Amino acid sequence: MTTSPPLKTWLPSWIFLTIVWGLSFFFIKVAGESLSPLQIAFGRVALGTLTVLIILLIIQQKLPNTKKAWVRANIAGFLQHTAPFALIAYGETHVTSVLAGITNAATPLWTAIFSMTFIPKDKITQNEYIGVMTGFIGVLVLIGIWEGNTGETELIGVLAVLIATACYGAVVIYTRAKVTELGFSPSSFIGAQLTSSSVQLLILCLLFTTIPSAISLSTTWAILFLGIFSTGLAFPLVYKIIRDVSSLAAATITYATPIVSTLAGVIFLSEGLRWYQLIGAALILLGVALVQGITFSSVWSRRGDLNP
Fold it and tell me: What is the tens place of the pLDDT at every residue in 252-279?
């Protein structure tokens, strides 16, 4: 019989992730004042890569050393960093950071959809089907589908963030199918993913962007936060929570980050929040809870269902 670890061993990491991932939408909006979406993504990933490489040096681990690992790191890096980071930054050029943060909560719904599609041996429960449908309805309510494409809820911005969450969902399935079997530590493989993504984004920036004429101090601080905290330190910590407690405990971060992103957008950017966006957010999170089978007791019990 396993016992749950003391809160002090993992709760600080949970709180840290909730705050830095919630604030990331605010800082993306700030960085967008001087940089293009691709440049924001590159700056974030490059600093994140440097941070993880320093962590690997401290804990005396190395990057993967096989061709297969690097091929898969490039695919996983594109799905987890390159595409979604650029898409979210692009989406925030059309919608508020509040709306982007709430929409991002739909990530687990995509994981369930891809699991249903590509892993037929997984038995899909009735609650999971209901959860996906509830979450989908929540997205439609969130964007005020009955009002059309107006103001801050421009459809193109929401779609960009939704595609980003689809990438996040896809990488979960890809990691499960193609990465876990490689046997590398999470920190080592994350280092490879970020390194691969840095190269991808550098190439994209060279092809499709021009060097900005000036970068404000606020943009510099925003990129430093996004790179060091929201990327470089965040990903190793989420695996630590999965290892020490459970995947469900890590999944509950989904519920807290929209609160942080909403507060940051409203307080610091004076962004508005419409009544139906709160209802849409509630429906999305309800759908996520149904899909993940989250209950109060299951969140706090340790499970050995992952091998990070």
Answer: 788 889 999 999 999 999 998 888 889 9
Stretches where the chain sits below pLDDT 70 are 1-8, 120, 122-123, 146-153, 246-249, 294-308
pLDDT value, residue 301: 47
pLDDT at residue 7 in the model: 66
Q: Which amino acid does the sequence have at 108?
A: P
Structure tokens given for 57: 């040096």
Report yes or no: 226 and 43 within 8 Å, Cβ to Cβ: yes
215-224 long-range contacts, Cβ below 8 Å, gap at least 24? 215/34, 215/35, 216/33, 216/34, 218/30, 218/33, 219/30, 219/31, 219/33, 219/34, 219/35, 221/30, 222/27, 222/28, 222/30, 222/31, 223/27, 223/31, 223/35, 223/40, 223/43, 223/44, 223/47, 224/47
What pLDDT score was predicted for residue 299? 47
Q: Where are the domains of the chain?
A: 7-299
On the 0-12 / 13-18 / 19+ scale of CB atoms within 10 A, 213 is exposed
Backbone φ/ψ region at 243: left (φ over 0), alpha (ψ -120 to 50), beta:
alpha
- Distance (Å, whole) CA 155 – CA 166: 16
d(CA 283, CA 129): 14
